[in-house]
Structure formats: structure tokens, C-alpha cells
Design brief:
single chain, about 525 residues, alpha+beta, Immunoglobulin-like, Purple Acid Phosphatase, chain A, domain 2, 2 domains, 9-stranded mixed sheet, 9 helices, about 20% helix, about 25% strand, globular, PAPs-like, PAPs_N, signal, acid phosphatase activity, hydrolase
Length: about 525
């Protein structure tokens, strides 16, 4: 059985009754009419001011000139995003927020979409109202719109592993800060799932979401996030928190599959929690449609997918991973996907160039600095290490055994590497990656958060490859799910223990509500 190299997930020791108690945080542990103060990530920077807005974020919109805003609020009246070019408040516009409700009753969520922003311009903004108060001023900069730009990729901050929220929040903030220092001009950040651990306190004043959103980069760069498996714990009902925090552009119905365009690249973000045949067919069709309708004029098509197809993190031969790999890899090659970014396995892995399920293995062993000349149908898969440092997985060889502390060179000498994996690294420290994009080449450099050392440096070149998506069917119109109203729940902190105790006395009813078998 696969083992983590840090504290085991809380799920491994929870009884069904304990899960139910923890599940209460899915809707009842934080008053909606009291904006949280400092979270359990002690002395962490807060995204609150004197106003009611908290856990705010700037997120990707459908294209490079748009920003989707998401925030939580304790104010019941109307709120807006007030935004203007930095230094020109006379040009301010106000975009009304709309309430969204996916069932997370412990707080009120609002989204607003701002479009038509000018390339290369820094915009100042605040969220709130005159009646309720305003968030602290922040600035977000719009990409200059040319075809040479950068973005940051992170994954698995997974705040809350072993209930060590403060420690992991500090590491996550350091990772995000180091990434922003390395790429201050980044057009966006992508987060490849497992933003939080799940199970425990998700949204209270000691909550995992408060800790995740304490990173100020979430309000200064456009973020794109996807669902990981931990967004579904302790049950699929937990995805309500993901849905109420992330305003997904061009979403396929209510699936959390979505796409967005950035300069000369198309990003296709998948909800890989749907691993059954129907879910995989849905993802395959979405990839085909998005690439056909929006990829033919792009230099690059990039897929964001939480589960890793090519990794030594202990899941390479798992039935669900094999099924995903065999179903989706041929589709990625078919439609002209260039790069697939993964998380989940808490270690760094780089595949060979893959055409469907077939690797192209070069004569020389892979090494940092490689330049890979991509041929038609070939895809590069990269799996990134955790951004939060809560746990790591040991190298698992092609013999199914774990080898703690093994190096790439030792694995090569012992013949333990999987045939599709070119290079891997497990140094048990958090990482981030900076992706530099231009018309002919795409470079990915991955860095160690703590000491800044280079984990890998790989360049993908495709100057001779056909445009993606040629000859594929039209894509449907995407759109985000909306709800007319969100509701707040008023509760005094002093009464929280009593509420939990009362609910624990009704375990059968709670089990039915949360879909958990006692």
C-alpha cells in the first residue's frame, strides 16, 4: 500500500461518526454575518479590511482581457467591484456582484465578471459598498497581449494535512510569494487541485479555505484552479465550497470542466474526479470541442488535470489511473494538445513525449535543460510537487515497491523507472513552476520553494507542428452556473459547541443528509 512520507491523511483514522462531526463544517461552523479575523495560520496576512469582504480572489475570465472576481461577505446588501486604471480613479466603473449558492450555508458568496480591460494596464480595485464598507485596495495587472508571456503553476497546497494548518499556510504563502518574485510579470497562476485537505474545519475562523486565501497573490494575479480529490472530502457535498469560491469561465454546464484563452494559448481545465466511463467520455468530448472551436488559432493547447498519468508517486498502475490514461491520452494527441499539467502525487515527474500511449524515448537520458522537438500528436506530461509541504509520496518503482530516499540515478541503474517517464525528482520539499510561452517554444522551470534550486528545466518546441483542433466539431457555448441568492446563518461562537453536540445526537439524520454510511 502506498504510504506518505509525512503525517497520514486524517481519513485513515476517522470513524464514520467522527466524519459526521467534521462534516458539520460543510454548513454550520462559521457565522455568515461575522467576517473572520486572523485564521489559525497565526500572524498570517489577512484579505480583510474594516469592511465585510473576506476570502476574495481575482480569477481568470474567458480571455486575457477579463477578470472574474470572487468574494465572501457578511453584508446582505448589494456590493460591487469598483475598478479603474491605476492612478485614474475618475475612470472608475462599478460592476455589480451576483450571489451564488451551491449550498454552503455558512457564508455568502458573490461573483462579478469584468471584461474589456486594456492590455498592459494595472488596475486598482476594491470590493464592497458605501453602506457595508470596502475591501482594502488591491492592484491586478492585465497582460500586454503579445505572444511572449509567463504563468506560474502550483498544485496540492492541501492545507490541513494532519491538522497542521498554520504550518502549511505559511509554506503555501512562501511558495506563492517566491513564485511571484521569480515571475513578477506572470499573467496568471494555475492551481492544479487539492487547494485544501478537506475533512476538517474548512471555512471557520480556523479553516483551511481561510488559510489558502491568506496568500495575497490571490488578489494580485489572475488565478485558475481545478478540483482535486480533496475538494470532495468527506463527501461530494464538499465541492460546494469549491464551486462557491471559484468563478469558472466557459464552464461545461455544472461539471467544473472549463476553458479560457490567454494570448496564444488555450487552457482546458478538467474535473478529473469524474473517473467513471461516463465522466471520461464527457471530458473527452469537452476537450475535442474546446480544441476545435478555440485552439486552431493558438500556438499552444494546455490541459490542466489533477490526476497524474505518468508518475512514480505510487499510482501508475492503479485501475482508475490506467483507465484515465488509456481513455484520454489518445484524445489529447488527436486534437493537438501540447502540454498536460498534473498534481496529486506530491513529487515531480516529466514524461517522454507521448503520442497517445506510446513514448518517444531519446538515446540520451533526460536531464534539466532538455529541448524537446515536438512532432505531430506528441504531448508532454508534467506532474508537480506540493506547494504546501504537508506530505510527500516516496518513489515507487516499476516493480510496485516503494523506495524512500531513492534518487533518479539509482532508479536508472536498478532499472526501476516506468517506460513512459523520462525524469523525476523527490527531494521532499515544496515546489513551484514558471512557464514561459512564446510562439515557437514553451519553457517550464520548476524550483524548490525553500532554497530556490532548480528541479527541472525543459523546453517544448513545435515550430513544424500543425495547428491544434483542425477538423474537429464545433464547441457548445459555455457558461457559469448561477443562483439567485445566498443565505447567511447567524450563530454565536460561544454556541458552536452546543450546536455540534446537538447535531451529534442526531447521527442517523446527519448520515442521510451527508450521504455517509454509519
Amino acid at each position: 500500500m502506498r504510504s506518505a512520507s509525512s503525517a497520514s491523511p486524517v481519513s485513515s483514522v476517522l470513524s464514520a461518526a467522527t466524519v459526521l462531526v467534521l462534516a458539520l463544517v460543510l454548513g454550520a461552523e462559521a457565522p455568515a454575518d461575522a467576517a473572520p479575523g486572523s485564521s489559525s495560520s497565526s500572524s498570517s496576512p489577512s484579505d480583510t479590511s474594516s469592511g465585510p469582504v473576506f476570502r476574495a480572489a481575482t480569477q481568470v475570465g474567458p480571455d486575457a482581457s477579463s477578470v472574474n472576481f470572487s468574494w465572501r461577505t457578511s453584508f446582505s446588501g448589494p456590493e460591487v467591484v469598483r475598478i479603474y486604471p491605476d492612478g485614474s480613479p475618475e475612470r472608475a466603473i462599478e460592476v455589480p456582484g451576483r450571489e451564488v449558492d451551491f449550498g454552503a450555508i455558512a457564508y455568502r458568496s458573490r461573483f462579478a465578471e469584468v471584461t474589456g480591460l486594456e492590455p498592459g494596464v494595472a488596475y486598482s480595485y476594491q470590493i464592497g459598498s458605501e453602506a457595508g464598507g470596502w475591501s482594502a485596495p488591491e492592484t491586478v495587472t492585465i497582460d500586454d497581449g503579445d505572444d511572449h508571456w509567463r504563468f506560474v503553476a502550483v498544485t496540492d497546497a492541501q492545507i490541513g494535512v494532519g491538522a497542521r494548518i498554520s504550518e502549511q499556510a505559511r509554506t503555501w504563502r512562501e511558495t506563492a510569494a517566491r513564485a511571484a518574485e521569480q515571475a513578477p510579470d506572470a499573467s496568471l497562476f494555475v492551481s492544479l487541485g487539492d487547494q485544501v485537505e478537506g475533512w476538517g474545519d474548512l471555512i471557520g475562523t480556523l479553516g483551511q479555505y481561510n488559510a489558502y486565501f491568506s496568500a495575497p497573490q490571490l488578489r494580485r494575479y489572475r488565478f485558475a484552479a481545478i478540483e482535486g480529490n480533496h475538494e470532495t472530502y468527506p463527501s461530494s457535498l464538499a465541492t460546494r465550497h469549491f464551486k462557491e469560491h471559484w468563478d469558472l469561465p466557459n464552464e461545461q454546464g455544472d461539471t467544473s470542466n472549463y476553458f479560457f484563452e490567454q494570448n496564444n494559448a488555450l487552457f482546458i481545465a478538467l474535473n478529473s474526479n469524474r473517473k467513471d466511463d461516463a465522466g471520461l467520455a464527457e471530458q473527452a468530448q469537452f476537450v475535442r470541442e474546446a480544441a476545435s472551436a478555440h485552439g486552431s488559432d493558438k500556438d499552444w493547447v494546455i490541459v490542466l488535470n489533477h490526476f497524474a498519468f505518468h508518475s512514480h508517486g505510487g499510482r501508475y498502475t492503479d485501475e482508475d489511473i490506467v483507465r484515465m490514461r488509456e481513455t484520454l491520452s489518445p484524445v489529447f494527441s488527436e486534437v493537438g494538445v501540447d502540454l498536460v499539467l498534473n498534481g496529486h502525487d506530491h513529487m515531480y515527474n516529466r514524461s517522454h513525449l507521448m503520442n497517445g500511449l506510446s513514448p518517444r524515448v531519446p538515446n540520451a537520458p533526460a536531464a534539466p535543460g532538455d529541448v524537446l522537438e515536438k512532432e505531430d500528436g506528441e504531448v508532454l506530461y508534467l506532474t508537480f510537487n506540493t506547494a504546501g509541504g504537508g506530505k510527500y509520496y516516496d518513489f515507487e518503482g516499476n516493480d510496485g515497491k516503494e523506495y524512500p530516499g531513492m534518487t533518479l540515478e539509482q532508479a536508472r541503474e536498478a532499472g526501476l523507472n516506468q517506460p513512459t517517464i523520462a525524469l523525476w525528482n523527490q527531494d521532499y520539499t515544496p515546489d513551484y513552476s514558471v512557464v514561459e510561452v512564446d510562439g515557437d517554444a514553451l519553457n517550464v522551470r520548476s524550483y524548490n520553494t525553500f532554497d530556490g534550486s532548480l528541479v527541472d528545466d525543459v523546453t517544448l518546441s513545435h515550430s513544424a507542428v500543425d495547428a491544434p483542433g483542425d477538423g474537429q466539431p464545433e464547441a457548445p457555448t459555455g457558461g457559469s452556473s448561477e443562483a439567485a441568492a445566498g443565505i447567511g446563518i447567524a450563530a454565536a461562537v460561544i454556541g458552536a459547541i452546543g450546536i455540534v453536540a446537538a447535531l451529534v445526537g442526531n447521527l442517523p439524520q446527519l448520515a442521510e443528509r451527508f450521504g455517509i454510511t454509519l
